[in-house]
């Protein structure tokens, strides 16, 4: 069965410092993994996706994630946090083999706070 | 291009009533999925429809049902509402052909409160 575990429910950083949001996955086959962001009172937006091409995936707004099979991890990073990055972030795995996005399993979410 | 539209945005219902939520996908998208978001359980998959057929169903009781119309618009229905059904219900649409699909685009959700 597919699942994802977000290791931190809340992360707080100062503006201009690096961001690290941690995610471990469990999958019986090569997974399709995603990171989504949800700003308050807004819908979910796809940040980036991994579908077995390059292991380092670049997304929008300067975010990137690295797929590490040996560690079953897919951590999200950004070199320098901006105030506008404050939001909730979800690590997500697709149930469907092949990575279609009709049936997604979400982690519990990590709330990112950015201090001025 | 219009995004995913969910109506209504907010809804208050009484225990025991039923409710119908609507989702209009992005033009050309034939896959529509529904999710429930609560503080306790997080985001959970309800079901997915493609070309008017339910493809997948999550682990929810039979009180939760859905359908999709020929224009790809989808509705979900919850009968005999319980207090625990209070949640944000999100709809997502994607273009799909076989196992290939675009990213899922989410609507802003319908906030259902059961009193």
| Shape assignment of chain A | globular
DSSP strand content of chain A: over 45%
The tally of strands of chain B reads: 13
Please work out how many helical segments of chain A DSSP would assign: 0
Profile the largest sheet of chain B: 7 strands, mixed
Backbone structural class of chain A? mainly beta
* Global mean pLDDT of chain B: 93
- Give the N-terminus to C-terminus distance of chain B in angstroms: 37 Å
Order of helical and strand elements of chain B: EEEEEEEEEEEEE
Largest sheet composition of chain A:
6 strands, mixed
Structural features, described:
The complex is a heterodimer of chains A (116) and B (115). Chain A has 116 residues and is mostly beta strands. Helices cover 0% and strands 52% of the residues of chain A. In chain A, the strands form three sheets. In chain A, strands 2, 5, 6, 10, 11 and 12 form a six-stranded mixed beta sheet that branches. A four-stranded antiparallel beta sheet of chain A has the order 3-9-8-7, with no helix packed on it. In chain A, strand 7 and strand 8 form a beta hairpin. Chain A is globular, with a radius of gyration of 13 Å. Chain B is mainly β and 115 residues long. In chain B, the strands form three sheets. In chain B, strands 2, 4, 5, 6, 9, 12 and 13 form a seven-stranded mixed beta sheet that branches. A four-stranded antiparallel beta sheet of chain B has the order 1-3-8-7, with no helix packed on it. A two-stranded antiparallel ribbon of chain B has the order 10-11. The mean pLDDT of chain B is 93. At the A-B interface, strand 6 and strand 11 of A face strand 4, strand 5, strand 9 and strand 11 of B.
SSE topology:
The complex is a heterodimer of chains A (116) and B (115).
Chain A: E1 3-6, E2 10-14, E3 19-21, E4 23-26, E5 33-38, E6 44-50, E7 56-58, E8 64-68, E9 73-78, E10 87-94, E11 104-106, E12 110-115
Parallel strand pairs in A: 2-12
Antiparallel strand pairs in A: 1-4, 3-9, 5-6, 5-10, 7-8, 8-9, 10-11, 10-12
Chain B: E1 5-7, E2 10-13, E3 19-24, E4 31-38, E5 42-50, E6 53-57, E7 64-68, E8 74-78, E9 87-94, E10 96-97, E11 100-101, E12 105-106, E13 110-114
Parallel strand pairs in B: 2-13
Antiparallel strand pairs in B: 1-3, 3-8, 4-5, 4-9, 5-6, 7-8, 9-12, 9-13, 10-11
